[in-house]
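Protocol step 4 of 5: obtain the predicted structure for the target chain.
Materials: sequence only (see below). No template structures provided, no constraints applied. The aim of this step is simply to have a reference model before the mutagenesis design in step 5. Sequence pasted as it appears in the construct record:
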Amino acid sequence: MRGFAFLSTAGILPEAVADTYLRNPKKPRRMSISKDIENKINIVELVSKYVPLKKAGTNFKACCPFHNEKTPSFIVSPAKNIAYCFSCHKGGGPLNFLMEIEKIEFREALQILAKEVGVELRTDFSKETERRTDVYEIYKLVAENYHAELFLPENREKLEYVRSRGLSDETVTKFKIGYSGNPRELFAKLKARGIPESELLDSGIFVGP
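Step 4 output (structure tokens):
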């Protein structure tokens, strides 16, 4: 289905892309060891070790630990097990958060979290790393594509509609508001960038056959 995509690198998480990991019931996917470990981690407890959190509805918020700010833009979602800054766009799931906050590599972060949840690692780290594309990076690529599509000559009518709703070009650009055109073309474009088809389907953005 085509339509306006109010996704952005400033706001693709956590509500705009809900229930991310949609699965095909006919073809259940085998979960990687890294994802299995992440699912066992309590993101609130993990982040609380580094920054004090304040309850904000169903989520928690704090001033971002990755950059200086006075107004909290760092959101932790227990339901989605993510911690993300809407200002500097750092964070993500438990692994990404730990890698960025500790400035360590994937393997070390995985070992730390595995020990915390009592999981014995028996995996080929090279394969685990190769098949792992950060889903939030996929979201950013999709948001950028949607935003670019909105400004294509053939989509001028859609851009005018957005403007008619009182959104200035500055706002459209700031929040990367866009238009979702042909999903098959976008799927092919992302595959051409080297992202495996299985990971694109796991992102929840696309629906498999």
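Step 4 remarks: Confidence is low (pLDDT under 50) at residues 4-31. The chain has two domains: 3-12+133-202, 33-121.
Proceed to step 5.
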